[in-house]
From TrEMBL:
Subcellular location(s) per record: Endoplasmic reticulum membrane
Cited HAMAP family: SecE
Alphabetized UniProt keyword annotations: Endoplasmic reticulum, Membrane, Protein transport, Translocation, Transmembrane, Transmembrane helix, Transport
Protein name according to UniProt: Uncharacterized protein
Amino acid sequence: MPKNRGQGGVSSDVKKDESYTGQLKQFAVDSQRFMDKCEKPNKDEYMKILTACSIGFVVMGLIGYFIKLIFIPINNIILGTNGATT
């Protein structure tokens, strides 16, 4: 008598698909709930965020500039590139 080998795999695949679609539906419901709770920032909150980001950009730029400013002469000393190539 032949054994039914394919039936177990089909039902487990269907369960996996149902589980996957259930997870997607739950994610969509959770996402919609999150978006319903969100609100736009008012002008004061927006200005605080804008100020903090601007200060961060300036500080990171200054740090990068000073690191570059310090390491250019050090690199020239180490490599000995002073312009005399004869």
